[in-house]
Amino acid sequence: MMAALPVWLALALLLGPHLRVPLGAWAWVSLVLVQPLLEELVFRGLLQGQALVWLQRGGRPLRLGPLTLANVLVTVAFVALHLRAQPLAWALAVAVPSLVFGHLRERFSSVWPAVGVHAFYNAGFGLTAWLVVAG
């Protein structure tokens, strides 16, 4: 989880005052609880779960190096979702965390570790934005 620290630091240094600070309790609840829960249930639970079933050979998931094809394809979809509300560079920045969330889903055969790490990541992102913009 500490691997997120350099990401937050880079965001603070590169984007500084352009970061969006969650305003109010509902924005924090959405950022830290609702979004991670819904995104992980849909992307890692439903989509990646089905992709793992469909994209296999001989009972083993198809791989692109150390990653499953299912994880890579779901990450592409996750980045595409973020393109709707964010610029390209910002949307691409979710690719690595998405691959991590996908790996957790596969490693533990459960979406819950991915939900927890996603919530932690979003909380750190929100706190970074708050410290940079409001601090």
What's the structural blueprint in terms of helices and strands?
Elements lengths: L3 H12 L9 H30 L1 E2 L2 E2 L1 E2 L2 E2 H15 L4 H5 L2 H14 L3 H22 L2
Antiparallel strand pairs: 1-2, 3-4
Structure notes:
It is a single chain. A hairpin with a 2-residue loop joins strand 1 (56-57) and strand 2 (60-61). The protein is elongated. 73% of the residues lie in helices and 6% in strands. The chain has one domain (23-130). The protein starts with a helix and ends with a helix. The protein contains 6 helices and 4 strands. The strands form 2 sheets. A two-stranded antiparallel ribbon has the order 1-2. It has a two-stranded antiparallel sheet with strand order 3-4. The model has no long low-confidence stretch (mean pLDDT 90). The chain is mainly alpha-helical. The relative contact order is 0.19.
Overview in brief:
The protein has 135 residues and is mainly alpha-helical. 73% of the residues lie in helices and 6% in strands.
In N-to-C order, the SSE pattern is HHEEEEHHHH
Q: Total number of helical segments?
A: 6
Indicate the radius of gyration in whole angstroms.
16 Å
The computed structural class is mainly alpha
Instruction: Report the end-to-end length measured between terminal Cα atoms.
Output: 24 Å
Strand content: 5-15%
Q: Look at the structure and give the mean pLDDT.
A: 90
Helix content: over 70%
The general outline is elongated
Number of domains: 1
Number of strands: 4
Largest sheet: 2 strands, antiparallel
Lateral strand order in the biggest sheet:
1-2
Low-confidence stretches: none
